[in-house]
Amino acid sequence: MIRFENLRKCYALGHQSVAALKGVSGVIETGEMVALCGPSGSGKSTLLNILGLLDLDYQGEMAFGENASALSPAPRHPDDAARLRRCQLGFVFQKFNLVPVMTALENVAYPLHLNGMSRAAQQRQARQMLEKVGLGECLHQRPDHLSGGQQQRVAIARALVHRPSLVIADEPTASLDSQSANQVIDLMKCLGHEAGTTFVIATHDPRMAQRCDRQMNLLDGQWMQEEMQWAV
Ligand code: ADP
């Protein structure tokens, strides 16, 4: 689970300071799929960057663990954060962010390579993951030979291949037609459920938000009123 308390983030903009998060608290249970919603500028990306340990320069407390009695404070040192990101976190982006010169198989194997797995095991696990997302026929294709929906399925395979406990997704269906978007939503739900993965998904897509277990709504860097009842 993830517990965060009173998260605050200000960006410096010239001589001014922009308060992007104004003290948000919450708990996300292990295996939960949460939609993070809110209008543009409400603080979704800022919160995702903090939860995903991409931004360590924030105020407030955050802890990760299997359950409430086994929580460890989130790392604040860049090396510790990088280590935890490699082992425990997966990321899915709106624009897929695949490495263009790598094949689908190489893209999916890459997180396993970073984690020091042997080449044979990397290839085996990446191939299995691509088969699970329905791309067993496209292992050796480069991203520019795949459709947007196929590229996002490769990105989902890459995000999940090392069995992370948390996947952070930023508008994963925003660049897709509705059929591909539905496939991507189904895949994230099905694979996440199978592995007990927690998902935090920033989305404007009502189809995506409705299929999640819960919606958390940000407005101007704070939870909208209905979220207050469960926020810590
Ligand atoms: P969302 O993802 O909901 O669109 P963001 O987290 O990107 O919201 O932005 C929240 C607020 O922080 C907005 O007012 C935005 O302009 C501001 N902001 C985001 N990133 C920066 C930055 N790097 N520098 C200055 N202001 C920023």
The percent of residues in helical segments reads 25-40%
Low-confidence stretches: none
Beginning-to-end CA distance, first to last residue: 14 Å
- Per DSSP E runs of 2 or more residues, the count of β-strands stands at 10
CATH architecture assignment: 3-Layer(aba) Sandwich
Number of domains: 1
- Which fold does the CATH topology refer to? Rossmann fold
**Structural class, judged by helices and strands?**
alpha/beta
How much strand content do the residues show? 25-35%
Listed once per kind, the bound small molecules are: adenosine-5'-diphosphate
Largest sheet: 6 strands, mixed
Which strand order spans the largest sheet, edge to edge or round the barrel?
A: 6-7-8-3-9-10
CATH class: Alpha Beta
User: How many helical stretches?
Assistant: 7
Report the radius of gyration as a whole number of Å. Answer: 18 Å
Describe the protein.
The chain is built from seven helices and ten strands. With 232 residues, it is of the alpha/beta class. It has a single domain (33-58, 77-213), classed as Rossmann fold (3-Layer(aba) Sandwich). The strands form two sheets. Strands 6-7-8-3-9-10 form a six-stranded mixed sheet. A four-stranded antiparallel sheet has the order 2-1-4-5, covered by helices on one side. A hairpin with a 2-residue loop joins strand 9 (214-219) and strand 10. Helix 3 (104-114) crosses helix 4. The longest helix is centred in the C-terminal third of the chain and has 18 residues, at 178-195. The chain starts with a strand and ends in a 9-residue tail after the last strand. The mean pLDDT is 94. Adenosine-5'-diphosphate (ADP) is lined by residues 11, 13, 18, 20, 38, 40-46.
